User: Fold this.
Amino acid sequence: MTSYNIYSWNVNGIRAIEKKGLITWIEKTQPDIICFQEIKALEEQVPSSLKNINFHLDIHSAEKKGYSGVATFSKTKPTSSSQSIDVEEFDREGRVIQTRYPEFILLNVYFPNGKKDDERLNYKMRFYEHFKNYCKTLLDNNERIIVCGDVNTAHKEQDLANPKPNSKYSGFLPQERQWIDDFLAIGFTDTFREIHGDGEGDFTWWSMRSKTAKANNIGWRLDYFYISNNLLSNLKDASIHNKVEGSDHCPISISLEF
Assistant:
């Protein structure tokens, strides 16, 4: 039997979080794979301490310095990896790493934020639609797929502390929430809800503008692990690690057995 403990974390700057004890957290947690989003660094800027631990490292940095970017750390080297989802306007922002393992394909994704203006919201929705179609093609090829990362949308009212006042803002707009419905409908499952049901207060992001948001749990669930339905029998656990500090997001994880 093969087991995988996979973590996902929007670190809001990998150089900053390395100084806050990231190596100690990795050593304590002992993940098999870690997917970081919003690393805000080129490959040569990733701290050497992270390059010297016992993980294979795949990085997709944005062309714009100090912006976006994803990194996947794997204890076992993937059989293949890719930084492209076949659209240049998305690829150049460093938003996706696809790594293949014997049991599944893993997509580590930093989905766009649409709060800045209508242009960025339109960009986000274009990314959403293309990504859904990209995954649909993989499903049509009978692939087993894990998608993780910062989706930048709360799905349902229980996924944020204040749904009504936020219903007119990007991150909780009807079309963004509908996309999650549509994505799940093509053959994916929200792993946290699969394990824990439809409870309230399970958040992964808290605004840093408020000093009391985290303490009072005024947050949003923006980070997800989705798995293709052909992996449901392999899913053993899904967790939100909201006690872990260092970013405005907290880590999330799943456990799988094959």
